[in-house]
């Protein structure tokens, strides 16, 4: 029979399995080959990194919505293609003068996992890159290309919050998903009110 220490060690290893697999996959992508040697060295390095280097605990929700995950992936592809075309047009336009901005975005959730995925997803899209993160307050600061007006900064902010919403609805906890849905309902109610007043 296993001792409590052994059981705790196996439980810890099982919890870190997604991180271990992600590190091994990253190692294989860096080497651009799948061989016994690269797989074994990737496994050893992943194990050493998770055991030797201190990493703060990442709380995973244990929840995945396949439909929302598919929508997230499709929207990411559309955003990348559209933003790439925009940046390409800006680059070849001889009259375009770059005016950029640092935009602060207050996220809906405080989850380190969601914040990291949102920052990565935003940085993958050409034209925006996260330059700083305020973990305590849940704020992302990003450099936005071609942001000249307050309306354009607001559009960038809405795009980031939309990305966060899609990530939360795909893999966030039930509580985080409810926060996002409530915020979405409140936003739609404000838009209806503003539209009625106009």
From TrEMBL:
This is Na+/H+ antiporter subunit E. The keyword Transferase does not apply. It comes from the Bacteria. InterPro entries: Cation_antiport_E. It comes from Agromyces archimandritae. NCBIfam families: PRK08965.1-5. It is a multi-pass membrane protein. It is found in: Cell membrane. Keywords: Cell membrane, Membrane, Transmembrane, Transmembrane helix. GO terms for cellular component: plasma membrane. The chain crosses the membrane at residues 12-30, 36-60, 72-96. GO terms for molecular function: monoatomic cation transmembrane transporter activity. Belongs to the CPA3 antiporters (TC 2.A.63) subunit E family.
């Amino acid at each position: 029979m296993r001792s409590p220490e052994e059981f705790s060690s196996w439980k810890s290893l099982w919890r870190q399995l997604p991180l271990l697999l992600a590190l091994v996959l990253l190692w294989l992508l860096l080497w651009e080959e799948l061989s016994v040697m690269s797989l074994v060295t990737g496994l050893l390095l992943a194990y050493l990194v998770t055991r030797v280097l201190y990493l703060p605990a990442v709380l995973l929700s244990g929840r995945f919505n396949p439909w929302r995950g598919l929508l997230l992936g499709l929207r990411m592809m559309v955003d990348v293609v559209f933003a790439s075309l925009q940046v390409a047009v800006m680059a070849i336009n001889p009259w375009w003068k770059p005016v950029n901005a640092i935009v602060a975005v207050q996220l809906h959730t405080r989850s380190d996992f969601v914040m990291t995925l949102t920052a990565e997803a935003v940085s993958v899209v050409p034209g925006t890159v996260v330059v700083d993160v305020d973990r305590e307050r849940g704020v992302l600061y990003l450099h936005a290309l071609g942001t000249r007006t307050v309306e354009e900064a607001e559009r960038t902010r809405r795009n980031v919050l939309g990305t966060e919403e899609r990530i939360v609805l795909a893999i966030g906890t039930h509580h985080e998903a409810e926060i996002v849905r409530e915020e979405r309902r409140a936003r739609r109610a404000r838009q209806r009110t503003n539209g009625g007043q106009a």
